[in-house]
């Protein structure tokens, strides 16, 4: 088993900066990937933010399995944890974040209003692991492209205040992972979503996991894509390479085939999916 142990310098710096700026903000917006509501949760964040009010934003909902997203929403409602599900590319979803902030900080806002303060400013901090869409969300809230975004982990390197409206300033922060990802399955899920660099895991491990997962949860997608019958589907990818090569230019080159599978999953060619599941005991 590979234990991913790493802590690039800028992440360590980011963690210290979060701690330093926390006292300046009223609320934390924790952005997670809707395809991995649990695995994209940084266990360090709750320790760092303590009892600061927090809203979870499940972003990239356009890529996630809508049925499972609903189950996660119910899961967090049961725990009375405010949660908003959005697709940051969908402008109409953004007001849900503002409503959730107003609801969570209702007491504070009422106090401002009761004491006649008209021009109050709410300060929020946007936190989360890399590549979940933090900067994209803030650009959309601001209505212009202020922060740099990109489909790879580690795009934002420094904290930046973004003035999103007359009453809401949000601090954009670099994505932070925890120092040691010792759960191999979590590491694979993070890599498949694009939150950690490809070079940290082998494409074959990622493809094997994806194949087994799809056979269990989304078999019809594989049957259609690779022209297979239900009885031909085997959860062991190694036994399937030959069968899927007929439709694949990379026939014979297993590493190349594995890379193609990972790419197909990430591009959404294997459909919408959610890798974390709510279990019966949750
Ligand atoms: N499909 C989809 N893509 C999104 C969504 N939100 C962001 N993206 C894309 O995801 C990629 C990462 O977005 P960023 O905003 O740079 O992510 P970040 O969390 O700021 O990343 P770091 O700064 O590296 O921590 C970009 O290619 C965005 O266009 C979404 O809701 N749906
Ligand atoms: Mg960013």
From TrEMBL:
**Gene Ontology BP, a term:** translation
Instruction: Give the CP-type G domain ranges.
Output: 15-179
Localized where? Cytoplasm
Q: Report keywords, A-Z.
A: Cytoplasm, GTP-binding, Nucleotide-binding
User: Per UniProt, where does GTP bind?
Assistant: 59-62, 131-136, 175
NCBIfam families (alphabetical): GTPase_YlqF (TIGR03596)
Q: Which family, according to the similarity comment?
A: Belongs to the TRAFAC class YlqF/YawG GTPase family. MTG1 subfamily.
- Put simply, this protein is called Ribosome biogenesis GTPase A
Q: Which organism is it from?
A: Bombilactobacillus mellifer
């Amino acid at each position: 088993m590979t234990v991913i142990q790493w802590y690039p310098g800028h992440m360590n710096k980011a963690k210290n900066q979060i701690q330093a700026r926390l006292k300046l903000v009223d609320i934390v917006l924790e952005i997670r990937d809707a395809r991995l509501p649990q695995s994209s949760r940084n266990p360090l964040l709750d320790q760092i933010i303590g009892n600061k009010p927090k809203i979870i934003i499940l972003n990239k909902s356009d890529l996630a399995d809508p049925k499972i997203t609903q189950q996660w929403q119910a899961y967090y409602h049961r725990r009375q944890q405010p949660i908003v599900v959005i697709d940051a590319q969908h402008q109409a979803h953004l007001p849900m974040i503002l409503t959730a902030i107003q609801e969570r900080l209702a007491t504070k806002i009422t106090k401002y209003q009761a004491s006649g303060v008209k021009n109050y400013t709410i300060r929020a901090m946007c936190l989360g692991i890399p590549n979940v869409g933090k900067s994209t969300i803030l650009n959309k809230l601001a209505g212009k492209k202020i922060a740099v975004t990109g489909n790879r982990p580690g795009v934002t390197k420094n904290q930046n205040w973004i003035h999103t409206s007359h009453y809401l300033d949000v601090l954009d922060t670099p994505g932070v992972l925890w120092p040691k990802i010792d759960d191999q399955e979590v590491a694979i899920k993070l890599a498949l979503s694009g939150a950690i660099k490809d070079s940290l895991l082998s494409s074959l491990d990622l493809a094997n996991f994806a194949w087994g997962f799809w056979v269990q949860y989304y078999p019809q997608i594989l049957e259609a894509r690779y022209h297979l019958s239900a009885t031909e589907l085997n959860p062991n990818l190694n036994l399937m390479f030959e069968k899927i090569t007929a439709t694949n230019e990379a026939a014979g080159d297993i590493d190349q085939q594995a890379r193609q599978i990972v790419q197909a999953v990430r591009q959404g060619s294997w459909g919408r999916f959610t890798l974390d599941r709510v279990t019966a005991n949750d």
